[in-house]
Amino acid sequence: MRCSYIRLLVNDFEACFRFYSDVLHLPVLWGDETGRYAEFDVESGTRLAINQREVMAEALETDTADPALPHQDRLAVVFQVDDVDATAAKLVADGARQVMEPRNWTAWGVRAAHFRDPDGYLLEINQPLVRDIGA
């Protein structure tokens, strides 16, 4: 596994976008302040991304007001793998708590599965979706 993103799940996307782009002067690799997702260059193999918090809650079918997870999903650590299905099966067999089985997230361009560590932090494993060149 290779850590490909640190994704901050933010409440005020526009303000956070301006902070990382205008205050920290991180080059924007994808997105803009009117969106719900953006990526920034942090001069390493890992990217910093910001994501509107509700987007992940909707995707994982969770509730940001869930009292069982009062501070849920403020951060996601994203690992790129060669085979999401095989890696997810191995993680489950080794005792990882899976919260979303592997599925294609076509809007995101990845196949991904989601897990929580023992403290409840969100982990994503993903691989790029192969696009049909003839399509």
UniProtKB/TrEMBL annotation:
Domain of life (superkingdom): Bacteria
Gene3D superfamilies, per the entry: 2,3-Dihydroxybiphenyl 1,2-Dioxygenase, domain 1
Any Pfam family the entry gives: Glyoxalase
InterPro entries attached to this UniProt entry: Glyas_Bleomycin-R_OHBP_Dase (IPR029068), Glyas_Fos-R_dOase_dom (IPR004360), VOC_core (IPR037523)
Spans through the membrane: none
Sequence ranges assigned to domain VOC in this UniProt record: 2-128
Protein name (record): VOC family protein
Organism this protein belongs to: Nocardiopsis codii
